[in-house]
Amino acid sequence: MGEPVQRYGDANSGGGTISVVTNNGVYANSKLVSIDGSGITTHGTNPNVHASATTANGSSTVKVGGLGVNRENDVDSCTHVRIGGSSNVKVG
Predict the structure, then answer these.
(1) Max CA separation in the chain (angstroms)
(2) CATH code for position 31
(3) What average pLDDT does the structure give for the chain?
(4) Is 1 helix (H, G, I), strand (E, B) or coil?
(5) Mean pLDDT, to the nearest integer, of 16-20?
(6) pTM: predicted TM-score of the whole model, two decimal places
(7) Is the dihedral of CA 73, 76, 81, 84 positive or negative?
(8) Domain that holds residue 36
(9) Structurally, how many domains does the chain consist of?
(10) What pLDDT is recorded for position 64?
(11) How do residues 40-85 score in pLDDT, each as one tens digit?
């Protein structure tokens, strides 16, 4: 079944969006697929501003370049949860 794949521009529950993805050549819905370590925009409010967060906890079975593909409900390094994502591409 799987969870919606996360891509460049998709958000987390704190409002941070995926802003830096290694050009891995893998796309879903014409957007680069996010892998562990992808950069996230600064988000949050004082005193809990997250300025250097990255995606984390991606799939242990679906990888791109040896790194887990990020999915809805994965927890980023800042502890916010990935939300949304592709409406028709799922990753286990």
Answers:
(1) 38
(2) 2.60.200.60
(3) 96
(4) coil
(5) 97
(6) 0.93
(7) negative
(8) 1-92
(9) 1
(10) 96
(11) 999 988 888 999 999 999 999 999 999 999 999 999 999 999 999 9
State the Cα–Cα distance between residues 2 and 51, nearest whole angstrom. Answer: 30
User: Which amino acid is residue 83, in one-letter code?
Assistant: I
- Give the three-state DSSP class for 18: strand
Strand partners, 5: 71
Q: Is the dihedral of CA 47, 48, 49, 51 positive or negative?
A: positive
Q: Supply the pLDDT for residue 1.
A: 79
Amino acid at 87: S
Quickly count: other Cβ atoms within 10 Å of residue 48's Cβ: 10
Cβ atoms 18, 24 nearer than 8 A: no
The structure tokens listed for 15 are 């409002």
- DSSP per residue, 21-52: ----S-EETTEEBPBTT-EE--B--TT--BSS
Instruction: Spell out the residues 6+ positions from residue 35 whose beta carbon is closer than 8 angstroms to its own.
Output: 21, 22, 24, 55, 58, 63, 64, 65, 67, 68, 69, 70
